[in-house]
Amino acid sequence: MKNTKYNDILRLRLWDLIPLAFVVAVLAAFFAFGCFRGNSAGQTVTVEVDGKTVAELPLDKDTQYLIKGFGGGTNLLVIEDGRAYISEASCPDHICINTGCVTETMPLVCRPNRVIVYLGEAKP
Amino acid sequence: MKLRGISVRTVAAIGLFTAIALIFSYVEALVPSVMIPGVKLGLANLAVVILLYYDKSATALAVSLLRILISALLFGSAMSWSYALAGGMLSFAGMLILKKTRKFSLIAVSFSGGVLHNTGQLLIASVIFGYPLYGTLYLPVLLASGAVTGTLIGIAATLILPRLPEANRILKR
After folding, report:
1. Hey, which of A20, A74, A119, B157 has its CA 20 to 30 A from B163?
2. Is the model's pLDDT at A28 over the cut of 80?
3. B101: pLDDT confidence band, cut at 50, 70 and 90?
4. Which uninterrupted H or E stretch holds A49?
5. Which of A63-72, A103-112, B145-154 has the lowest mean pLDDT?
6. Nearest residue of B to residue A15 by CA position?
């Protein structure tokens, strides 16, 4: 025998969409951002062109750095709020821009300019 | 019969539901987390969610606190205790407020509880590690998993609650 006393609280209603919408909005905001603010203290971003390290930049200092890639191409590396991403590139495919922010597991790579941007100290 | 203002029936109910919650914790600890490390169904919360509707909120709070304390003693450490306490209390507070508005269904309340549970754990982890983790990839993963597990717990509670015997008969007089 089912107890009908609880029917009211068990019934789904329009109000239920509020918590759902809230969570979906937060998730959407994060994915729209494309970048997650990481632990930037003391971390460095290393820029490599054609296998040679050309720059090491601290992640906690906002700056812009124009990478002169192999064969005259350029990529503009932007560091702000502890995130590093490429905002402009001369290459046709813009894969480096679409990658979003550099993370430990996802370096920014530009094949045409032979540019690699990764999180961490320069590898010997 | 009253014991310092708490009826013996309430004491018995707290004991009963705490035992059920602990058995759920134990069963869950036996099953390894296969999908994502650290993501669990949170079956023990089922006892708390059901009790929130079945009896007074104070009884549910007592069960929530006791099961967190005892399961940390049995299966966890001081570290896991602080995570569980932060998650459990934030989740309980949120569920209680949503329930009191009388505007949300049980599934929505449980859904919010699951999400808040993981949010609380992330907040305390941020305090322990000393830098904000809520801006990292953990947040979307934990929000989504909390939403899914909270909904599943809510569905289970929806199925169980109407089938329980009348609370008046076993808990109150």
Report:
1. A20
2. yes
3. very high
4. strand A44-49
5. A103-112
6. B104
Q: Which of A15, A81, A102 to mutate to test the interface with B (most CBs of B within 10 A)?
A: A15
Asked whether the CA dihedral A110, A111, A113, A119 is positive or negative, the reply is positive
In this complex, which of A13, A23, A41 lies closest to B131 when CB atoms are compared? A41
Give the ranges where chain A is alpha helix by DSSP (H): 7-10, 17-33, 95-98
**B128 — contact with chain A (CB < 8 Å)?**
no
- pTM strictly above 0.90: no
Q: Which of B106, B136, B144 sits opposite A9 (nearest CB)?
A: B106
Cα A22 versus chain centre, distance: 23
From chain A, pick out residues whose CB is under 8 angstroms from the CB of B112: 19
